[in-house]
Amino acid sequence: MTSTPFNAAYESGLSWDAYLAAAGHHAEPWIAARKNVVITDTQQELLQGFTRDMRVLIVSGAWCGDCVRQGPVMAAIAEHCPQIALRFIDKDAEASPIASLEINGGHRVPVAVFMAEDGAAVSTLGDRTLSYYRWLAAQRLGSACPIPGAPIPDDVLASLVQDWMNECERVQLLLRLSPRLRERHGD
Fold first, then answer.
1. Which residues have a Cβ under 8 Å from the Cβ of 139 and sit 6 or more positions away?
2. Over the stretch 22-50, which tens digit does the pLDDT of each residue have?
3. Could you state, in order of their start, the residue ranges of all structural domains in the chain?
4. DSSP string, 110-143
5. Which of 59, 94, 138, 144 is the most buried (most CB within 10 A)?
6. HSE of 119, CA atoms in CB hemisphere, 13 A
7. What is the fold of 5-185?
8. What are 149-160's pLDDT values in tens digits?
9. pTM confidence score
10. 140 burial class (0-12, 13-18, 19+ CB within 10 angstroms)?
11. What CA–CA distance (Å, rounded) separates 185 from 89?
12. Burial class (CB in 10 A: 0-12, 13-18, 19+), 149
């Protein structure tokens, strides 16, 4: 097993259900958001084609609006793909790798750390996806600004799901084409 701060955090991380149980009253918006996430048949078919195991650690805050929008998306994706082992860790937890994940000069959440089966870091994605930033820019850089915490339109949610799907696929292909993993698996 590769020794990284991400691997140690992953081992300390919680499953979706355990994270929500620990979140207390903050869990309600997460549960509601998860009910709105749709993984299409085409996306499910893609996920079923994954062959390499990947670990995904979401560094999060149960209170965080961006985390509430995106954590449930990754949970839905992982539910449809046995090769994705998903864990959540609070950014303030002792084992949190947040100090190693600075984004634009700050410790923002959520951040997903994608790892190979042996814990080697492969990719990070955070704090928001491209589709969400596009939508947010259209809202905030124009004449109107949305109310904080307001629901996002279904088409924006579908784009956000696709952004996360794209990163999962990119990481899966990176793992499939990795010379060290191809040698390990004989493919």
1. 145, 146
2. 999 999 999 999 999 999 999 999 999 99
3. 5-185
4. -EEEEEETT--EEEEEES--HHHHHHHHHHHSSS
5. 59
6. 11
7. Glutaredoxin (3.40.30)
8. 566 788 899 999
9. 0.92
10. exposed
11. 30
12. exposed
